[in-house]
Amino acid sequence: MRILIADDNAALAEGLAYVLQKSGHVVEAVTDGQATLDALERGRFELLVLDYGMPRLDGAQVLGRVRARADYLPVLLASARDDAPRRLAEQGLVVDAVLCKPFSINAFESTIEELERGICRSAPRHAVHFGPLVCDPADGSATLDGVRLELAEDERRLLERLASHHGEAVAADELAQIAGGPVEPVIARLAERLHATALRIVTVRGIGWCLATA
């Protein structure tokens, strides 16, 4: 999963990020509320680990803006304030799980695993559109101008993720996780399959790749 950790304790945020990265997740850590919103604006995340007391914007302000978005982002509230869940509930703000600080690494990992299982079960299976390309995760198809592309499963997964980012670069490590191994050979095969089409895969130096229209 792509996970964003928002906590004003930089050492704690980095420690939690390290734990998650060891489990294969792609993680970014920020230390204030505005940086949280900026990160969510820049990239796509599948889970937000959110502290309540943060500078610039607190957890309630961040969550209010997150919940105003069209897409639903699962949120794990990790706070030392016992009243934080009640305060959020009074504002009509819903979180998906709560951990009270201090918590053990085992409790943190177990909560993340439970949320990941729930996210996978409830993830929307809507088709992803990018120009003439339609990737439908419900039936595992990818069509270009209505013609089905014959792709290997790792190629299809990468194409779907690239399409879902609407022309934004996707990090190499994220794509490697999706490919289940070295990503460069899969990207090369996919680029070759798209060579004569209206789509192309562009290398973004220092980041990864993006899907673009020719």
From TrEMBL:
InterPro entries according to UniProt: CheY-like_superfamily, OmpR/PhoB-type_DNA-bd, Sig_transdc_resp-reg_C-effctor, Sig_transdc_resp-reg_receiver, WalR-like, WH-like_DNA-bd_sf
SUPFAM superfamilies per UniProt: C-terminal effector domain of the bipartite response regulators, CheY-like
Gene3D superfamilies attached to this UniProt entry: 3.40.50.2300, Winged helix-like DNA-binding domain superfamily/Winged helix DNA-binding domain
Transmembrane regions listed in the UniProt entry: none
Keyword check for DNA-binding: yes
Modification 4-aspartylphosphate, positions: D51
Coiled coil (UniProt feature): none
Alphabetic keyword roster: DNA-binding, Phosphoprotein, Transcription, Transcription regulation
Residue stretches making up the Response regulatory domain: 2-116
Classification via SMART domains: REC, Trans_reg_C
Protein name: Response regulator transcription factor
